[in-house]
Write a structure and sequence with these properties.
Blueprint lengths: L2 H18 L1 H9 L5 H21 L10 H19 L1 H5 L6 H12 L15 H16 L1 H8 L7 H8 L12 H25 L4 H12 L17 H14 L3 H8 L4 H5 L1 H24 L4 H16 L14 H13 L12 H19 L8 E2 L2 E2 L2 H27 L4 H12 L20 H15 L3 H4 L11
Antiparallel strand pairs: 1-2
Helix pairs in contact: 1-3, 1-4, 2-3, 2-7, 4-6, 4-9, 6-7, 6-21, 7-11, 8-10, 10-11, 10-12, 10-13, 11-12, 12-16, 15-16, 15-17, 16-17, 18-19, 19-20, 19-21, 20-21
Length: 483
């Protein structure tokens, strides 16, 4: 393990992050509010810490960043940004405790959307912008952004890319990893601008349109209103957000192919077909359940069911209604969607559809083997054979994911949360969703969770966003030893 390279690379990421804090400072000045100083001071502290780290840890050699270094840089880089990103909340007086401030920042960066703020609408424009901007930075990834901006991170960039980009098989769009990072951010910006324009046209202010676009394309969920999108009560806005949430849940490689006019990979993509099929099936089942057990009209039933299904499967977490009072079947379906998540290579969290696909085909293969022991069956995705090591990695991922979920749920229950609230809080943070059920449902927040619970849920957010392996690998004996 090249510790000096790890510290140097993390410090460079921190410098970039410190510079980005100037954006909400500018927003504060634009709206004539006084917390620009809090962001300016936070930016100076963060950048100074990063520069100091770079100067004190200049690597003695030019060895490439290996797999272990990539994992350490990614995990520690995200952790450092969550800690420094909490400074504006404390200095501006929005949040008073480190547990609350780090929780809010980690929730933003990991695109979770869980909040401890009691009154969102009472916050300044700069704070609201910072929360949504954290979503936007974390959606595509702060390490991917740093690779695109910093030449010094090109060495070993593939290891960093692999450690941060969601999904078992991250795709390169270009031979050079830095060019891939630039292409991904280009698509990301294009979707953000397009949604901002549409939301502005259909009634949102430019500020609200931009912040909600940040939260949608990043599948984050922070809103500028206490009631989320329910505050606008606009079918047109709900439809726009639903469409862009669905698009954000698709592998960004397919967006890139589509923009280049290459639609064959999209038509043949098994994961996309499964993703669309799950969404349509869930909407149909919930709509039938609501029509049978509620007083919604057909139009409102389709509107709210489609919005909440897409919001939760993409782990965005926006709400247009209190789904916690829906019939048991509908809530059960939504809970299952929280575990499935969007496509690999998207900004969505949770297990991912591609893993669900592989796991399902693996299970079917084992059933066939029980009946026909000598039969050779190959797992295929998009017409290509899936290597056995990938199948094994998917199975191990799901086991680790569920293990973290179960252990964290037990811990939250031990802190006094009722079962539904404990399950909902862990499922919502580990899956990077935001609102859960019970005490942390769509009309509530996480302020009532004990401080130690907030630290645990912040850890769950990081584990979920960095795909379990990246974080848990740091605790493997011998990880930090020199080769």
């Amino acid at each position: 393990m090249n510790i000096r390279s790890v510290i140097s690379s993390v410090s460079r990421i921190v410098v970039v992050f410190g510079a980005l804090m100037l954006a909400p400072a500018a927003i504060s000045l634009m709206f004539g509010e006084g917390d620009w100083a809090a962001f300016l001071l936070s930016s100076a502290i963060t950048a100074a810490a990063g520069v100091t780290g770079v100067l004190l840890s200049a690597p003695k050699d030019n060895r490439r960043i290996g797999n272990r270094e990539g994992i350490a840089i990614t995990t520690l880089g995200w952790t450092a940004c969550a800690l420094f990103g909490a400074l504006p909340f404390i200095l501006a007086g929005s949040l008073s405790t480190p547990a609350d401030a780090v929780f809010e920042t980690m929730s933003g960066l990991t695109t979770t959307g869980a909040t401890v703020l009691m009154d969102v609408e009472a916050q300044s424009h700069a704070i609201l912008f910072w929360r949504s901007f954290l979503h936007w930075l974390g959606g595509m990834g702060i390490v991917v952004l740093s690779i695109a901006l910093l030449p010094g991170l090109q060495i070993g960039g593939s290891q960093l890319f692999r450690a941060e980009v969601p999904g078992p098989l991250p795709d390169r769009l270009e031979p050079r990893i830095r060019e891939t990072a630039k292409r991904l951010w280009g698509i990301y910006i294009l979707l953000t601008v397009a949604q901002t324009v549409l939301l502005r046209v259909f009634g949102m202010s430019l500020f609200d349109a931009a912040t909600h676009a940040f939260g949608t394309v990043a599948t984050g969920g922070f809103s500028t209103a206490n009631k989320s999108l329910e505050a606008w009560n606009s079918p047109a806005i709900d439809m726009i957000v639903t469409v862009f949430m669905f698009l954000a849940g698709i592998n960004f490689t397919l967006h890139y192919r589509a923009l280049r006019g290459n639609f064959k990979p999209i038509q043949k993509d098994d994961e996309l077909k499964t993703y669309a099929g799950i969404v349509l099936a869930a909407i149909a089942l919930i709509s039938l359940d609501l029509l049978a057990h509620s007083r919604y009209s057909l139009g409102n039933t389709l509107r709210h069911s489609s919005f909440q299904v897409v919001s939760l499967i993409t782990t965005t977490g926006f709400t247009t209604i209190n789904y916690d009072i829906w019939p048991p079947l509908s809530r059960a379906i939504l809970l299952i969607l929280m575990f499935i998540g969007g496509c690999g290579g998207s900004t969505a969290g949770a297990i991912k559809v591609v893993r669900v696909n592989v796991l399902a085909k693996h299970s079917i293969r084992e059933l066939k083997r029980a009946v026909y022991p000598r039969r050779v069956t190959v797992i295929r995705l998009n017409g290509k054979a899936v290597p056995e090591e990938v199948s094994s990695a998917v199975l191990a991922f799901v086991i680790l994911y569920l293990s973290v979920f179960l252990l964290s749920t037990l811990a939250m229950s031990a802190m006094g949360l009722d079962l539904m609230s404990a399950v909902g809080s862990v499922a919502a943070t580990l899956g990077n969703i935001g609102p859960g059920f019970g005490l942390v449902g769509p009309t509530c927040n996480y302020s009532a969770v004990p401080a130690i619970g907030k630290w645990l849920l912040s850890f769950c957010m990081l584990v979920g966003r960095l795909e379990v392996y990246t974080v848990l690998s740091l605790f493997v004996p011998g990880f930090w030893r020199k080769p």
